[in-house]
Structures
1.
Amino acid sequence: MVAARHLPIGQRTEPDFAQALGAHGLAPLRRGRVRTLQVNVGKLCNMACHHCHVDAGPKRTEIMPQDVALRVMEVLAKNPEIELLDLTGGAPELNPNFRTLVTEARRLGRRVIDRCNLSVLFEPGMFDLPEFLARHEVTIVASLPCYQQKNVDQQRGRGAFDKSIEALLALNAIGYGQPDSPLTLDLVYNAVGAFLPPMQDTLEARYKAELARAFDIRFHRLLTITNMPIKRFAQFLEREGRYEAYMSLLVNHFNPRTCDGLMCRSLVSVGWDGTLYDCDFNQMLELPLGAAREEAIHTISDVDDLGLLEGRPVAVASHCFGCTAGSGSSCSGAIS
């Protein structure tokens, strides 16, 4: 057993998520109606965070081209049941098509989320970004892994905390995060180590109290998201000899009550090149869309009606224990 801890991840016997579902009468995991189109517009980012499941960074060259972005808009227009366009990256704002995607989605009457790392507001050409987002009433979901400087800088790099606070103050100044404001500002917590997030409601109250006391910052909700044992975080666990222990933690806290609310049941993830996946985590592992193998639906150019995916099985693997451990984890935070 000791020797097995140092085997490369690809050579290990990973825990079987499908088997865990089956033991609770939940296999196979099937899709409901698609309500969210989550679009990863590329891996280019102004940061290189230790927990990043995308492996994003300043040197990444994978960027969604204009033709794929236009196809995303075509599919969104043809599927009125899709309520939400969820833009992620990398830093999605660095994609030259970002503002077009936002503007067109809002013209179609859809809600839009910008998954923002906050520090991007200080990059060249981004001085008017807060006003642009406010004008289109885009929901900002901003990553802030802690309300303490030490923990944020440890995970995201020196100076990240100060930039985040400055960005939040600027967003508050134009109405984001204020009580009763239509400009929604949510924060995201990622654990700084190999442990599960605390209870979301309890931690949200602590964030609100600490940020208000220290900086007079306001926000609407805190979303707790479990660190996924893939890509950069998996490499960290491997270096520390803690990969198996973390996987055991996730498996031992499997919560079948979270399965109804898993994001993969109501979301389709679009990669920067147009490839379709069941979720953003599957996308990073290049795990093909599980729900449409018979129809040969692989990219966003292969399908107009995303309703074809309803009722079909979702592709699952061992990392799915991350979304079903404890209170669960999704792009909207805790599930139960």
2.
Amino acid sequence: MQEITLQNIESDLISASQRQPVLLDIWAPWCGPCKALGPVLEKLELDYAGRFALAKLNSDEQPEIAGQLSQMFGVRSIPFCVLFKDGQPVDGFVGALPEAQVRAFLDKHLPSADEAAAEQEAAAAESLLAEGDIGTALDRLREAVALDPGNDTARFEYLRALITAGQVDEAREVYAAVATRVVQDPRFAACGHWLAAIERAAQGRSPTQLDAAIAANKRDFDARFELAQLHFAAQRYTAAMDELLEILMRDKAWHDQLARKTFVAVLEIMTRAPTGPRDPAPAKSTLELAGGTPVVASDPVVDSYRRKLSMTLF
């Protein structure tokens, strides 16, 4: 349980709520109902086993924070509890509610035990992938998908990791289950283009043959696209996008915009790929008591190629 102050609100409440939901208990030493609610909340934090973290804020010692939250929710009494998720206050309740009512409040907003376990497995797998331990990461992602079959983020990470590891047959099986949803989810659409590139690369011309064809005819878009697919299949992402840009600069609509769609797919895969163990990037919060708005880092290579695509198309 963390005591929240002006000094640690950004790290221990705002940023912490991006890793797991945080229930902030606003209380005061003189408040009888606060003393009754406190043990209930502490018990529930244990019962929910990591599905949320409990934090406390003394309204007498931190009137600025308590006042802003009270104004935000139109509340004038304590105990007052606010649930934070993804860096934002999302809901709250007032008074020393019975345990059953507090449970009902939490269950409305928190992931189920299986969903929470799946999220933990997926997060652990991301770090393992960044460290190069693909085998263990795949095991964790399989477990995440099994625990929470509706978790599309875990399913995408599993699919991407399978392709990265060269386990293409299993990747095709996983992709088949989501192939009908590529229009709604660009992540799965990107994996579809990636698998298509791998299949084409296995039966197409060699790089030497393709280079010769392009040298003979700069507008041999079939050869350029085939070369881009070779690069994409081998995870040479920027080389793939360079060839696709050559097509787009000459014919934006080539093959029903296949070059553009593949370029976007490569960007999607690059954007999602883990680059190393890290905490979630800070998000802009409606609570600005701790200072200025944090800046979310981005991949300069991805940003550069997004600009190139935009300049080519427009």
3.
Amino acid sequence: MPAAQTITVAVVDDNRMVREALAAMLSRVDGVHAVPSDVTDAAFLDEHQPTVILLDAGLGEEDSLGVTVSLAERAPYARVIIMDLIPTHEEIAEYVNAGVSGFVLKDASFDELVATIMTVAGGGKVLPALLTQSLFTQIANETARNRAPTMDAVRMTRREHEVVGLIGEGLSNKEIAQRLNIATHTVKSHVRNVMEKLALHTRLQIAAYSHREGNS
């Protein structure tokens, strides 16, 4: 593909191994040039002029929604895809209102990621399907699968236990932040840590774990 048609993808993640590995894989795709970064400052944007920005939803202590809003002002030419989104209606609405063009969930395949990038780069939107079942019906289904490790097998902090319990009550990240008197992006960081420790992929699986273990 000629250079003028090459899609430049910025992979923005605070985990160096993840961003570099993902950028290397994407750069092997015809017509894609990927660059890894843990920042989206003016120098990076001016140097690379990315067509698409893959933005991790859990940027350490940064507020990824705030970063998204800033990118809409500083890099209006770039289309933003949120990675690892925990798909609550509230968060989807916030990101869409901030100008996000697509979402890639944590359990997506590499082919799905590439397809999302191509669609978004071409001007399309890739939004997650709305949940068609009630929250507690899905919790029941996840509980029946019994995939998560037991409480005794996982070392979690007191705050992480609190977050798990509140997710089990059906609270959103914003509601959890208000209940615990902490920032919303801090809640997202705790949720991400819980998902990694429990080898779970969705908010519903965390809720199912909470109900099975009696945390809520």
